[in-house]
Amino acid sequence: MASKETTMLDCQFLLVFLFLALMAMVPFGASLGVNWGTMATHQLPPSKVVKMLRDNGIHKLKLFEYNEGIMTALTGTDIEVMVGIPNNMLKDISENPSAAASWVYNNVNGYCYDGGVNIKYVAVGNEPFLQTYNNTYLQYTLPALRNIQNALDESGVKCRYKATVPFNADIYYSPESNPVPSTGDFRPEVKELAIEIIQFLYLHDAPFTVNIYPFLSLYGNDYFPVEFAFFDGLSRPLRDGDNFYKNAFDANLDTLYYALGKAGFSEIEVIVGEVGWPTDGDKNANIQYAKRFNQGLIRHILSGVGTPARKGEIEVYLFSLLDENAKSIEPGGFERHWGIFEFDGKPKYELDLTGNEVNRGLAAVEDVKYQLKRWCILDPEATDLEELPKSIDYACSLSDCTALGYGSSCNHLTVEGNASYAFNMYYQVNNQNDWDCDFSGLAIVTDDNPSEEGCPFPVMIAYGSSILLHGGHLLDVFLRIIEFLSVAERLKKSYSSANNAALSNNSVSSKAEDRRSVVAIQSEFNKRASKIGFGIHQTSQKLAKLAKLAKRTSVFDDPTAEIQELTAVIKQDITALNSAVVDLQLLCNSQNESGNISSDTTTHSTTVVDNLKNRLMSATKEFKEVLTMRTENMKVHENRRQLFSSTASKDSTNPFIRQRPLVSRSASTTSTTSPPPWANGSTSSQLFPGKQADGESQPLLQQQQQHQQQLVPLQDSYMQSRAEALHNVESTIHELSSIFTQLATMVSQQGELAIRIDENMDESLANVEGAQSQLVRYLNSISSNRWLMIKIFFILIVFLMFFLFFVA
């Protein structure tokens, strides 16, 4: 009996051991993946990041576009990959099946082999139905999806891939009258097309992918219950029939499930392509909230419970892996801080990917190399701070200052601290170049870490280079090259003059004075060019703001005063910049004609002027287009007003008659109206007191007439102001046309000058070649004469010897 009990206990222990062993073989977070975005100025080596993924047990990865370096690093791993196609490729792929086949051949098929990359899905676009895209990609999404799936099916490789489309959660909704998940449905304007895509996915056994962000619900609504955004915060759940909801994630996902069910696809697989919480850039974006949300999400997903409406496992991809400091911040400053790791691969907080209720630290990226430990800060001895706001704005526009925003981690800094932070971010993004820590003498480089509590001043990693170099910064680099060439030329001349001891003191003094003059002119040229480039950059920013204002077409949302003010400012800026470019051109011409500078400096100076002209021409053209659009909108408003005015005048002179259809048309009509047949006796006299109505209608009519008399001058004043605004816009367009013509003429003249220079160079080259040929002939003649002299000398020697031996 005891032996049987012992045997049973041994079997039980064996079963428990086998179960634990099998559990150990299953990777942690089998249904959990991450998004890896690459919109950063400096990126870690993909091989190091992939090793970090494996060290943390992450076995699912979503990429927003094909990246050869990342795919190479993933080769030979067991990480399951979803490769994305950017939205800007949808049009070409939707219209050309060959483009789809080419993309599949180049980016997918080559990794289908034993030991290749475990690609499972291809994401066609990213949130193409997003409302802020204004239907830009609606017509391309389904054809592109169809062409990609066909190309995958016909690729001829053994691997089987599925194409999907990641949608934003704004594709579905619950009505305001009953905002619960069970009333969920697709937006009416995209419902038909969305169902066609869902049907295609269902027929090809592909999943429906959706991006859900409870943080955005909190960010866009101050009245949104904060605790409902998390998985552990709501003590009293929200009820929807028999279902109870304790968090926004489940409610949002169930809204989608109900919408799919109403469309007839309740069984289709659903993947949550993006979900996460940012750590900076907003008052609700911080480390504490991010850890709380992501840890609660992981426990919820790995529990396998599902949602109230659909039980079971959910496949989820966290957003995101690393911070991306080059993402657009138009939605908000938080866009650059979604990562669970910093830009350098350090984990931001403890996160247990196993869901076992333990504070398990994440493994960081190993052996990361950094740039030198030095920072760019505001010079404590700087006194002239008039240009400081512009310098801060310039630095932030070309780097990442989102940590300085309201409610962000560095919001507590002083003005000096803000300046130092902005200068340092610009300095780090541009690889710690010494010339990027100047800002008109306001900044200095320091070896002392200026970080403050809760606000670190980062040092950039030593990988890659900045992708934020645009026209303005390229111009700065260009000017630095010119200065370097100028210094080299001066050193060369100095060396030559030092070796020439035969020169007189007066000559040396004269040449030194010429060199100083050349240096002064070149320095002045560089300062002017840099100032013009910065001015064009600021004008372009103002133009972008004006374009947004000019696009408003509603009569009730017409910022006329703001547009007029901004138009006047931009007009003054362009006029001033045009004059500055003309002066710079004259300075360049005088510098080139002096003959005291090298040909390289001349070429570079001419190129800088041409670059500034082209940028100013582009800004002027854009300004003209914006004003033309504004003129058309004003004309449309005027036509609309005249249409309604003429229609109203046909019925009555009362401007309110169309808004008040129940007002009696005249006092006489009211007084002569006979009472209805059911009105008689005392009741009739009480309900329809005719004389009393006559007495009341007269003051009402007088009030309407007085109101109308007051309204007419207002309408005339409004029309006069609109006419003046239209006239001002048209006159500005005319002036811009003249400026544009002047710039075009200058560019044309510069082109002719370049042609003449080329012709002179060709002529000079021909003269040099001719002189060279003459020198060769002269050398040949000298050589032949030398042989003749040798012959004569030899004959004389012979005669001399003959005379000595025989005659003497």
From TrEMBL:
Family annotation (SUPFAM superfamilies): (Trans)glycosidases, t-snare proteins
Q: Which CDD domains match?
A: SNARE_syntaxin5 (cd15844)
Any one GO MF term held by the record is: glucan endo-1,3-beta-D-glucosidase activity
Query: In which compartments does the protein localize?
Result: Cell membrane
Q: Is Lyase there in the keyword field?
A: no
Print the keywords alphabetically.
Cell membrane, Disulfide bond, Glycoprotein, Glycosidase, GPI-anchor, Hydrolase, Lipoprotein, Membrane, Plant defense, Protein transport, Signal, Transmembrane, Transmembrane helix, Transport
Transmembrane regions listed in the UniProt entry? 787-807
Q: Catalytic activity annotated for this protein?
A: Hydrolysis of (1->3)-beta-D-glucosidic linkages in (1->3)-beta-D-glucans
Q: How does it sit in the membrane?
A: Lipid-anchor; GPI-anchor
Region: Disordered, residue numbers = 637-706
Question: According to the UniProt record, what class of enzyme is this?
Answer: hydrolase
GO terms in the biological process aspect are: carbohydrate metabolic process; defense response; intracellular protein transport; vesicle-mediated transport
Reading the lineage from the top rank, the first entry is Eukaryota
Q: Which Pfam families match?
A: Glyco_hydro_17, SNARE, X8
Main localization (coarse)? membrane
Q: Mark out the compositionally biased spans (Polar residues).
A: 642-656
Q: Where is the T-SNARE coiled-coil homology domain?
A: 716-778
What is the protein name for this chain?
Answer: glucan endo-1,3-beta-D-glucosidase
Q: Which organism encodes this protein?
A: Corchorus olitorius
Lineage per the UniProt record: Eukaryota, Viridiplantae, Streptophyta, Embryophyta, Tracheophyta
